[in-house]
Specification:
Keywords: ATP-binding, DNA replication, DNA-binding, Nucleotide-binding. By secondary structure, this protein is an alpha+beta fold. Helix content is 33%, strand content 25%. It is built from 19 helices and 28 strands. Strands 7-12-13-15-14 form a five-stranded mixed barrel. It has a five-stranded parallel beta sheet with strand order 17-20-23-16-24, covered by helices on one side. Strands 1-2 form a two-stranded antiparallel ribbon. A hairpin with a 5-residue loop joins strand 3 and strand 4.
């Protein structure tokens, strides 16, 4: 125990001992009994100018006639519950935020969910963004923060219900931006730190049951409990020795359990530094009340390492503290200044008779000349419609001779967030839809694992499908295009996956070249049920004339000479609307904003 600069003087030590003895006497006289916890907090509160180490504080309290084992026990207990903690220099500090503080705030902000027994999701930045103690803890030991919230939930929940507290009933979302990262950036320096990232579900296991609180009992009557933060941190079958000398037995009936699921997540292609490289993936474990099977998810968790069997090499996994499907996540609202900027541009276009859709469609597909109607249709496909009785996605088919830009259009659209590109000729049935396999997982023995295909993995986006022709694969499009779902049945297991995707497809005429003497539909090599599910079918074959050829040549030269910063591996293109410069970022913001609007058709049109 030392002060700020030198060893604690005997006079100061004696002063603190006398003060402790006086405090305990007054406490006993007024309240009936003083506790070791109260005394420890009293010392740290009243002597903040003195730096106490753990051993130094123990010796001082023992000098005040307190029991040695009691002092050691309660210092450890207060540290375990984060009421006191060691700073980076090894000195004890009283926490700026206690479990009771968090408990009170949970009751103030989330009492409705707690009363109904529903999970509580804490918006960290909104509720604790100014709490320097919790922010520091989140940096140094994030597990302590989650443990504090769990214990605070238990403290707040106990007076509300007689049932046992569910351990998974509190989660944290919306961390500061500095914790956001990509799957590909997770490495050895990430272990034990808090991270937040997005991923596409490659595979999902069925739920398993995990021990959350292990209870051990001894023949002498003593019981011990161990709370587990991580499924891999303790084997409950390990022997625990009692103070009486006998080994304690794991008590399955009185232990507490939670559901746990294993996910394999892939980094979204649009967030990779080089889209041409294979995307990274990682395995995530999380305690859950609801299953996740597909789509894009947001994960908040703590990376940990697990040793391989026969080498001093470790794999990195994530123990998630919160996993939410992107479709169910409350998205961060668009900046009000951006919304105001968009509204000014829309008003300017309306007042000056400018077709804003035409300008934006140029940004979406800038390298292709002409096809104004097609580009506008594809732009509206990305904006989507309002959710109602009908599907809010439209399906578009592009038909033309080879070499007219179909694949270029599909690839450009696939780079939009949540979209993807694929060729029907090189894709299997399960690659398009989904599959159920029996594999050995890292938790427990083998079990069912769902593996979403292209149409399921990009739920909520657009799938660009090239080389669409009559084959065994085209029939797999039918259900997704019409009902926006995929049903899979295998070995007695049946699953229904959401597949709310828009299809942007392209194909060549049957004979490879268009026959002008025949109707376009007759030359599409697809079955009638598939053709019927396309809302718009476009003929991309242009009329041959000298003027058109010159315009195409000018466009090719312009594309070749255009020099601008790169965005996601592509040349950034801008367009001007009066004094406003519109770029790809503006297009992204515009689509994000308009997707959230609930558009109604006026009754005058209906009548």
């Amino acid at each position: 125990m030392v002060d700020k600069t030198t060893a604690l003087m005997e006079t100061t030590k004696e002063e603190i001992i006398r003060s402790v003895q006086t405090f305990r006497k007054l406490k006993n006289d007024n309240c009936g009994k003083s506790t070791a916890s109260d005394t420890i907090i009293y010392v740290l509160d009243n002597y903040q100018d003195v730096n106490f180490t753990v051993d130094g504080l123990k010796q001082l309290l023992i000098g005040a006639k307190m029991n040695r084992s009691t002092v050691s026990k309660y210092i450890g207990k207060l540290m375990d519950t984060n009421i006191i903690y060691e700073d980076p220099f090894g000195y004890l500090r009283k926490s700026g935020t206690s479990i009771s503080d968090i408990s009170k705030k949970l009751l103030d902000n989330h009492i409705k969910q707690m009363t109904n027994g529903k999970p509580v999701i804490v918006d960290f930045q909104k509720e604790y963004g100014a709490d320097t103690f919790l922010l520091d803890k989140l940096d140094s030991n994030p597990n302590d923060v989650f443990r504090m919230f769990s214990e605070a939930y238990a403290e707040a929940y106990t007076p509300l219900a007689k049932d046992n507290v569910a351990y998974y009933n509190v989660a944290i979302k919306n961390l500061p931006n500095k914790y956001r990262c990509k799957i590909g950036n997770l490495n050895s320096t990430s272990i034990g730190k808090i991270v937040e990232f997005e991923g596409i579900v490659l595979s999902a296991s069925v739920n398993k049951v995990m021990v959350k609180k292990a209870v051990y009992s001894c023949a002498c009557g003593k019981k011990e409990e161990y709370a587990l933060d991580n499924v891999f941190e303790k084997d409950v079958s390990d022997k625990v020795k009692c103070n009486c000398g006998k080994y304690m037995v794991f008590d399955e009936n009185n232990s507490k359990y939670v559901d746990i699921q294993e996910l394999t997540l892939q980094q979204p292609v649009e967030s990779t530094d080089n889209p041409q490289e294979p995307p990274n993936d990682i395995t995530v474990f999380f305690e859950t009340t609801s299953k996740i099977w597909n789509g894009k998810v947001n994960v908040i968790g703590i990376p940990f390492k697990k040793k391989q069997k026969n080498a001093p090499v470790y794999d990195i996994y994530i123990y998630a503290k919160h996993v939410v499907s992107e479709e169910n996540a409350s998205k961060r609202p668009l900046d009000e200044t951006k919304i105001a900027h968009m509204k000014h541009i829309v008003e300017y276009c309306n007042n000056n008779n400018i077709d804003l859709l035409d300008k934006l469609s140029e940004l979406l597909i800038p390298t292709i000349h002409g096809y104004e109607i097609i580009r506008k249709a594809i732009l509206l496909q990305q904006i989507k419609g309002s959710v109602g009785l009908n599907r809010n996605n439209i399906h578009i088919l592009l038909v033309s001779d080879p070499g007219l830009g179909k694949s270029e259009i599909l690839r450009r659209v696939s780079k939009f967030p949540k979209n993807t590109y694929g060729s029907l000729a090189g894709t299997s049935g399960v690659g398009l839809t989904a599959s159920i396999d029996y594999v050995k997982s890292l938790i427990g023995d083998s079990g069912r694992v769902s593996k979403p295909g292209l149409l399921v993995a990009k739920n909520g986006g657009t799938v660009s499908l090239d080389e669409v022709t009559v084959n065994d694969m085209s029939i797999h499009l039918l259900e997704a295009m019409e009902s926006q779902t995929i049903h899979i049945a295998k070995a007695g297991a049946t699953l229904c996956f959401p597949a709310e995707v828009a299809i942007l497809a392209a194909c060549n005429p049957k004979s490879g070249r268009q026959d002008k003497s025949k109707w376009l539909i007759e030359q599409i090599e697809l079955s009638e049920p598939v053709i019927d599910r396309f809302d718009l079918i476009f003929d991309m074959n242009p009329e041959n004339n000298r003027e058109s050829d010159e315009e195409i040549a000018q466009k090719i030269i312009k594309n070749y000479n255009y020099v601008s910063p790169m965005v996601n591996g592509d040349t950034a293109v801008t367009t001007r609307v009066g004094e406003y410069i519109l770029d790809y970022s503006f297009l992204m913001d515009f689509i994000e904003y308009t997707r959230a609007l609930n558009v109604k058709i006026p009754e005058s049109v209906e009548n």
